[in-house]
Specification:
Structural class: mainly alpha
Number of helices: 12
CATH topology of the largest domain: Endonuclease III, domain 1
Distance between the termini: 21 Å
Largest sheet: none
Shape: globular
Number of domains: 2
CATH architecture of the largest domain: Orthogonal Bundle
Order of helices and strands: HHHHHHHHHHHH
Radius of gyration: 19 Å
């Protein structure tokens, strides 16, 4: 197999050409970004945003508003977010309570802490691991880091950045180390990279039966070379 020299900036450009430039994020507020992580489960991005809009309309998206809102008003939103809506009402109240008790309702000063402490602070909230904390720090333009969700991580591993390890955290660190010297210190570019890599993982570079025949990155993809070039297979049929 021929070794492939990867260029992350070129890869992001190819994805932008294929999918189009991403729109603006629905929010850049740190507390609202945390709410977005917990308001829905295993639903489309569109459904998650509908649930978030419903929460804004009927309950509000500030910590004190969520604590003051009725159970039923929050439930209107969490019902749009898939399974276990009652549990998510409790989760959103828990998030709001942490924000009020530990941050006086304002997370923004915590984002100005040194990077390790800022990530540690965000991880006090349920469902916020290191990748989500890094995404929040990126989308709030607090630190120019490329936070990755599981879809974006899978794309980069298949391309050949880093290695798949025994656990998710180790894989994540391996990829971050591999891409570190190819990142731009440009918030707009990094946010677009996050969104495009995530979209590619959801639409083409899926966990099972990835649609490699449609992929704009296949010529520079180690997974494609290993699967379809070194061991020829019927790409079009996926057999």
């Amino acid at each position: 197999m021929v070794a492939i020299k990867l260029n992350l900036q070129r890869i992001v450009s190819q994805l932008a050409k294929y999918y189009g430039q991403p729109g603006a994020p629905i929010t850049t507020d740190p507390f609202e970004l945390i709410l977005l992580e917990s308001i829905a489960y295993l639903v489309s991005d569109e459904r998650r945003e509908e649930a978030f809009a419903m929460l804004r309309k009927y309950a509000g998206t500030r910590p004190h508003e969520i604590l003051a809102a009725s159970h039923d008003d929050i439930l209107k939103a969490t019902r749009l977010g898939g399974m276990h809506p009652e549990q998510r009402v409790s989760r959103l109240r828990e998030i709001a309570l942490i924000a009020m008790n530990e941050f006086e309702g304002d997370l923004k000063p915590a984002l100005r802490l040194p990077l390790p402490k800022a990530k540690q602070t965000l991880r006090k909230f349920p469902s916020i691991g290191e990748p989500s904390a890094e995404k929040i720090l990126l989308f709030t333009r607090s630190y120019p880091i490329l936070g990755l969700d599981s879809n974006g991580l899978r794309v980069l591993v298949r391309l050949g950045f880093g290695e798949e390890k025994k656990n998710y955290s180790a894989t994540y660190r391996s990829v971050q180390e591999a891409i570190n010297d190819q990142l731009k210190e440009d918030y707009g570019w990094l946010i677009n990279a996050h969104v495009l890599l995530r979209q590619h993982g959801k639409e083409l570079c899926k966990t099972n039966r990835p649609l490699c025949e449609k992929c704009p990155l296949r010529k520079s993809c180690a997974y494609f070379q290993r699967t379809f070039v070194s061991v020829p297979r019927a790409v079009a049929t996926g057999s």
